[in-house]
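// run 5 | inverse folding | seed 20
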């Protein structure tokens, strides 16, 4: 009779979605605080504590003593679940050791099933032995074959975590080193490329500057040569027209009253004139004026 009632309850609860996978919460991988709901006097709690402590001594384990057998066990567990659900535990474990079908009936209670479904804290059902299944197993977020297996599920291995963390740090360090090497090589390559380009620009600028300098030098040289030639021509002209040179050649300068006489038509008989030569002067009086009839009569 009990088996028939149990199957009907399973069908009912399953139809309402209490067993659906989408409603199940994941068990945290790194639990810090767990609460075990079981009998404090049984061997179950000792096994759970020992198993957790062997792997991790940092996890805080609280135990809520509940009845796990008898007519009032289901109500006792429901009350305890409601009390601990808001205490910020990472995970709850509902556990009891093996027993007969009748002994495990409290874990097939409908009110308990709904209480397990409604709690907000992830919960593991660890009731009986591996072959024992209860409605609590189907509703809970996870089922452990035994209480010891439940302890294994929540107790992460500290040493393994340390090893994994060290490996992760090494892997991250390698990635950082690889990235650093990659960007250093890229930066070096870019700097070298910029240096080569800068050198080419400087070289090109040097050549251009040299060409401009040479061109300016050539123009300046030609300009200076032209100026020197012009100055030389001027000096030659000045030298050829030097009065002293003319005087040395036998020419004289004739003046009258300070005025240069450059034509016989500017003088008359009786005028006093001064005749200046290279080595002195003559004060003379004009006795005769004889204009030339034509230039051919000039005899120098």
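// decoded
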């Amino acid at each position: 009779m009990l088996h028939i009632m149990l199957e009907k309850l399973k069908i009912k609860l399953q139809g309402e979605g209490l067993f659906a996978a989408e409603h199940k919460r994941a068990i945290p991988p790194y639990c810090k605080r767990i609460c075990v709901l079981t009998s404090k006097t049984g061997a179950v709690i000792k096994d759970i504590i020992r198993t957790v402590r062997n792997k991790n001594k940092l996890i805080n384990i609280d135990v809520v003593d509940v009845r796990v057998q008898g007519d009032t066990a289901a109500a006792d567990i429901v009350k305890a679940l409601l009390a601990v659900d808001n205490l910020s535990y990472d995970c709850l474990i509902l556990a009891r050791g093996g027993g007969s079908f009748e002994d495990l009936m409290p874990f097939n209670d409908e009110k308990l099933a709904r209480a397990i479904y409604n709690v907000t804290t992830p919960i593991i059902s660890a009731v009986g032995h591996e072959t024992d299944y209860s409605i609590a197993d189907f509703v809970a977020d996870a089922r452990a074959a035994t209480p010891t297996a439940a302890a294994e599920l929540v107790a992460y291995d500290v040493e393994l975590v340390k090893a994994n963390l060290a490996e992760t740090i090494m892997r991250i360090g390698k990635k950082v080193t690889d990235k650093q090497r990659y960007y250093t090589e890229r930066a070096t390559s870019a700097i070298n490329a910029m240096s080569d380009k800068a050198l080419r620009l400087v070289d090109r600028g040097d050549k251009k500057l040299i060409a401009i300098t040479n061109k300016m030098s050539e123009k300046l040289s030609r300009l200076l040569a032209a100026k020197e030639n012009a100055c030389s021509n001027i000096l030659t002209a000045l030298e050829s027209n030097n009065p002293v040179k003319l005087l040395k050649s036998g020419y004289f300068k004739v003046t009258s009253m300070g005025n240069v006489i450059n034509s016989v038509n500017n003088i008359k008989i009786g005028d006093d004139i001064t005749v200046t030569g290279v080595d002195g002067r003559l004060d003379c009086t004009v006795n005769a004026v004889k204009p030339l009839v034509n230039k051919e009569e000039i005899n120098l």
